[in-house]
Amino acid sequence: MDKPKTVRLTTADKIFYGALDTYLVLLFIVIAIPMWSTITLSFKPQAFLGTNFELMFNPVWKWSLEAYKALLGNNGFLLAFRNSILILIMGVFWALFLTIPMAYCMSVKSLPGRKILNYFVLIPYLFNIGMIPTYLVITKTLHLTDTLWSVFMPGALSTYNCLIMRNFFDNIPESLKESARIDGAAEWKVLISIIMPLSKPIILTIGLYYGVNFWNDYFHPMLYINKTDLQPLPILLRNILIGSGMNEVVEVNAFGSAPIESIKAASVFMSAIPMVIAYPFIQKYFTKGTMLGGVKG
Description:
The protein is mostly helical. The protein is 70% helix and 0% strand.
């Protein structure tokens, strides 16, 4: 058999790929060094007197778990972590519950008033009503102050995510939908039995978008939640990071004898764990969902 022909790289190609490799290595270093510094700082022993740079090379067997023991033994941290988990689960479920039917309605070509519906969704995306009307609706009309609903309700239906999902639905062959309709299936049956099983990539992708947004949301809890026992992890993390220097909600000695720098680093690291765990399971669908949803066929 003939050997496959290899493509020879030109000098310009070699320079380009060399520059690209150099850029990726530098980008990795820029991301990895702060991350590693945060991890090693979270395991800082109480008796360590060196600099943070020296701490990055501290042997693993000399690491201390005092910061993590202090966090996991603090009721305030566990309560905030629980609140963030509840916001994440309820928020993603509610957001997908609203986004999927809306995107499907926008993709049905035979729907009367389809263009008007698309404009109705697009105009608020281009011309945002602002923060004050939203605040009045959440607090005065819906009376959601000091409830977890106030955190995820304002962002439960994202126009951007809805448009991406609509484009994905548009790429599903119309013949599959028509065959179900000919068999007597109602539109909700077409959505549940035909569209959703074929749309797992975009549903998981949009769910990841919503999940990251709800998990990291700091602004809405700050606006609508006043009760300490309902505050999520981003608010507690903010109090840990700056509260010790301003005598705010979280006191330095509230977390035991661990160094306050280690408490800060450990709280940052633990707040990222859920997203780090979830991403590998969704990553294989992420690129496919984004590409098919972003390009209309």
